[in-house]
């Protein structure tokens, strides 16, 4: 008998038929003798609908109240799934995040899980009941409802699995695993049977929304066996997130991620003096705006250009702050662009393969795609370009690095599929 946490995303519980199908799958796992905890998202589109509803009442809703509203989406699905399980004759019990006592910090709309009480859940499991928990939500120490950020049900599931020391956390979604890139953009994308946690972390943080980044961080920290599977098909083992690199030589590139949620800002003609980076980014940080990539050009005439990227939702705010800073620094001007995309190649195999960056730049140059910014780490190379090139660039790189289905070099195929 194993303890399994299963998470079902929005499309997997998108209508009554899908909820009935999920109930059958859960029943099947339970009937095989396993203890099952189910974490569910809101029905697809519901979180967006609630967000729009809130904005129709207040353009910038107070985040505490927004969390109260958004948390209702998941409350609907835990009740419906528990009813569907009851119809199948399964004893099931639904809980909101606050009922379980998923304790978080107080950062509304992006709260972090601090602690999970497991007594009630463990008691239910020991009594043979299936436990159904609302994803994406928790409660802070002052009893306020909090939410964990978009895609946060993944994190609820992995944190629950860590707390209960589950044998496996299964993320059921609308694709049958983690692919070399988003299969909705590149039909030639290939499913990976395994991917290292390190690579998954980089893909998630670079824009692959198949798993929320914090869920992968939890899996990494607590060594939770994590698998991504399809709730729409009954076959296949999905993708296992592993904690060790393959002993066989790993493929150079595991996958390609793209992120269209960023915007770029530049302060031109900044006096080239010590402390300038701090004076530019200090006020940005104080306004709670996160900065991703940073590029500072070498000075030529005693001035320098300073460019960085922020989340697109923070673009206007960052632009305003920067106008002020530019004046104080006597910089020439501030410019910006919120129609950009960041494309990232990820692979632990990069450590042992030289020349990946130049191969990437050559492939993009052959398509006449201009690169605006570049950043590299040990296992990732990211480039920023005009958003209109997203699809062309991702497809080009996917082909250039031999990731297209059935075109991969033989020795790489053996270690990844
Ligand atoms: P859920 O509602 O089940 O949480 P999400 O929409 O959050 O589902 O995540 C699944 C989606 O992630 C897929 O439909 C796919 O379009 C997208 N995706 C992006 N990158 C990848 C990737 N590398 N592999 C698989 N899916 C990906
Ligand atoms: N319902 C939330 C969202 O749409 C959380 C989740 O689905 O994971 O982001
Ligand atoms: Mg998701």
Key attributes of the depicted protein:
417 residues; alpha/beta; Carbamate kinase; 8-stranded mixed β-sheet; 4-stranded antiparallel β-sheet; 20 strands; disordered C terminus; binds adenosine-5'-diphosphate; binds aspartic acid; binds magnesium ion
Explain this structure to me?
The protein has 417 residues and is an alpha/beta fold. It has a domain at 3-174: Acetylglutamate kinase-like (Carbamate kinase). The protein contains 13 helices and 20 strands. An 8-stranded mixed β-sheet has the order 3-6-2-1-9-11-12-10, sandwiched between helices. A hairpin with a 5-residue loop joins β7 (137-139) and β8. The chain is globular. It starts with a strand and ends with a helix. The structure holds adenosine-5'-diphosphate (ADP), aspartic acid (ASP) and magnesium ion.
């Amino acid at each position: 008998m194993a303890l399994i946490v299963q998470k079902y995303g929005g499309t997997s519980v998108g209508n009554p038929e899908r909820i009935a199908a999920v109930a059958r799958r859960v029943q099947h796992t339970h009937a095989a003798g396993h203890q099952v905890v189910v974490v569910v998202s809101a029905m697809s589109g519901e979180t967006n609908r609630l967000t729009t509803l809130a904005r129709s009442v207040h353009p910038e809703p107070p985040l505490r109240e927004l969390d109260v509203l958004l948390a209702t989406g998941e409350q609907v699905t835990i009740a419906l799934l528990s009813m569907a399980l009851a119809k199948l004759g399964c004893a099931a019990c639904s809980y909101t995040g606050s009922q379980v006592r998923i304790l978080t910090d107080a950062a509304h709309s992006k709260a972090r899980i601090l602690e999970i009480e497991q007594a009630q859940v463990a008691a239910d499991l020991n009594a043979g009941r299936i436990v159904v928990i609302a994803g994406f939500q928790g409660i802070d120490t002052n009893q306020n409802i909090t939410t964990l950020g978009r895609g946060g049900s993944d994190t609820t599931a992995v944190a629950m699995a860590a707390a209960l020391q589950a044998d496996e956390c299964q993320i059921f979604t609308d694709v049958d695993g983690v692919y070399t890139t988003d299969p909705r953009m590149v039909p030639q994308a290939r499913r990976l049977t395994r991917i290292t946690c390190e690579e998954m972390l980089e893909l998630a943080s670079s824009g692959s929304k198949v798993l929320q980044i914090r869920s992968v961080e939890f899996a990494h920290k607590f060594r939770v066996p994590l698998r991504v599977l399809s709730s729409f098909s009954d076959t296949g083992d999905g993708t296992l997130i592993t904690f060790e690199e393959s002993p066989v030589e790993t493929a150079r590139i595991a996958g390609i991620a793209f992120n269209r949620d960023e915007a770029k800002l530049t302060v031109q003609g900044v006096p080239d003096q010590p402390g300038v980076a701090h004076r530019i980014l200090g006020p940005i940080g104080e306004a709670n705006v996160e900065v991703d990539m940073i590029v500072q050009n070498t000075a030529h005439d005693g001035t320098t250009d300073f460019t960085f990227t922020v989340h697109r939702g923070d673009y206007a705010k960052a632009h305003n702050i920067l106008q002020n800073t530019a004046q104080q620094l006597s910089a020439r001007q501030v410019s910006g662009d919120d129609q950009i995309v960041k494309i990232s190649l990820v692979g632990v195999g990069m450590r042992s393969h030289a020349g990946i960056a130049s191969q990437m730049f050559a492939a993009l140059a052959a398509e006449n795609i201009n690169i605006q910014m570049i950043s590299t780490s040990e296992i990732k190379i990211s480039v920023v370009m005009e958003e209109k090139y997203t699809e062309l660039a991702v497809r080009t790189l996917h082909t250039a690095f031999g990731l297209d289905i059935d075109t991969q070099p033989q020795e790489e195929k053996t270690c990844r599929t």
